[in-house]
TrEMBL record, chain A:
It comes from Cellulomonas humilata. Keywords: Cell membrane, Membrane, Transmembrane, Transmembrane helix. InterPro entries: DUF1290. Belongs to the sbp family. This is Small basic family protein. Its main location: membrane. GO terms for cellular component: plasma membrane.
């Protein structure tokens, strides 16, 4: 639960402070946000499954974002940035979908 | 994999080639959660100390802050780009309407000038009026219709579209030669792709484009000349312009098509720019008449790359 509280504080702080992201990081933001969404949905499902763990949630969140950004960076360096981005979005999208479906089954029993 | 030979290998699953997708789809939840739960149940999980909790909270806050910043940054540029675009659109519309207003003003003033001229000349000024009409055709101010010659120059087809050879393209020099040849052959009025040529017109190139009167044109170039079609055709063939056209066709593969037309409509420029003016006195009086009557050859010069030729002020 600590992780969720910390995250909420961080989001509120971000909304209040409106920090600016360095321009060099801008290309990695879309993929990083998708990866963060994936971690969020995973955490929500784990919570509903009753196996939520602060450490696993936060570390998976962080590593997801970093790896996603790293893949985009690598892709850009190799000249296949858009293709790799598409691949990451497809994989993460499928995961988000199945996790969302599991959450839906938990909440609505349907 | 013949079943009769009793292969010892297990049968391949149908979706073996899609293990990645199956893995992603069937186990969307991070296995870490299950492992952590198992460790906790077994009592081997890491001890939750004060320090690790603080670290987790700090990490969570940092991630929340970062995610919010990223989301805000992603949303912001779209708005800025949209605003800039709307501003540009508004400016374009405003300037276009301004240009339309000015154009309407020009038309109205031209009409007024024509009316005043008419008034001033009265009934006696018929000869002057004829002269003005003739001059305005020569200077390209008024639109002209009549029989004439139509020449179409097309860029040669390129084998390699990536590497364009300027030699295969119609260049400003070619158009200059053709137009000057047509003037020499007795053309009364010439237009290139609907751009009427006057004494002040320059044909030149800027980069890959051919500019006629600072308007960029592209292949195919249609040169229309009003005049005696048959006479111009023979004159053109006899002059050096004809040889130039033949070279273009045979050596470079540039398409040259010459047709005589019974009716050509050439637009006028509608504008006269006054460069020099003076009050005529007795000694200077005969000069403009001579210029108006036989001034055609000087006026029919088309400037080359250097820029514009200057017509003598009359």
């Amino acid at each position: 639960m600590i992780a969720v509280i910390g995250l909420v504080i961080g989001v509120v702080g971000g909304l209040l402070l409106q920090p600016t992201v360095p321009v060099e990081l801008q290309p990695y933001l879309p993929i990083a946000v998708v990866a963060a969404l994936d971690a969020l949905f995973g955490g929500l499902r784990a919570m509903l499954d009753g196996i939520f763990d602060d450490r696993v949630f936060l570390i998976s969140f962080l590593s997801n974002v970093v790896v996603a950004a790293l893949i985009v960076f690598l892709g850009d360096q190799l000249g296949v940035g858009t293709q790799l981005s598409t691949a990451v979005v497809v994989v993460l999208g499928i995961r988000i979908f199945s996790n969302a479906a599991a959450i839906r089954r938990h909440l609505f029993k349907a | 994999m013949n079943p009769r030979h009793g292969s010892s290998e297990p049968p391949r699953s149908l979706d073996e080639s899609m293990t990645l997708l199956t893995e992603v789809y069937r186990r969307p939840l991070d296995p870490g959660y299950a492992e952590a739960t198992a460790r906790r149940a077994a009592g081997t999980g890491p001890r939750r100390t004060w320090r690790s909790t603080a670290g987790l909270v700090a990490l969570a806050m940092g991630l929340g802050l970062g995610a919010t910043a990223a989301t805000l940054a992603l949303r912001q540029p779209a708005g800025a780009v949209l605003a800039a675009r709307e501003l540009l659109e508004a400016q374009i519309e405003q300037r276009s309407s301004e240009a339309d207003d000015v154009q309407a003003e020009i038309t109205a003033m031209t009409d007024e000038i024509a009316m005043l001229q008419e008034e001033l000349l009265g009934d006696e000024g018929q000869s002057v009026r004829d002269e003005i009409d003739a001059d305005s055709v020569q200077s390209g101010v008024t639109a002209v219709t009549g029989p004439g010659l139509r020449l179409e120059l097309t860029d040669a087809p390129s084998d390699n579209p990536d590497e364009e050879d300027p030699e295969l393209r119609v260049q400003d020099v070619d158009l200059q030669v053709v137009v000057n040849g047509l003037w020499a052959a007795g053309a009364e009025a010439i237009a290139v792709n609907g751009q009427r040529l006057t004494a002040m017109t320059a044909i030149r190139s800027a980069g890959d484009a051919v500019l006629v009167d600072l308007v960029a044109l592209s292949s195919p170039y249609t040169v229309e000349a009003v005049g005696d079609a048959a006479g111009m055709q023979t004159e053109l063939a006899r002059a050096s312009a004809g040889q130039h056209l033949a070279t273009l066709r045979t050596t470079y593969g540039i398409g040259v098509q010459m047709t005589s037309q019974s009716r050509l409509e050439l637009p006028g420029t509608g504008l006269v720019t006054l460069h020099e003016a003076g009050v005529p006195d007795a000694s200077a009086a005969p000069e403009p008449e001579a210029g108006a009557g036989g001034g055609a050859p000087e006026q029919r010069l088309v400037a080359g790359s250097a820029g514009q030729t200057r017509r003598d002020g009359t």
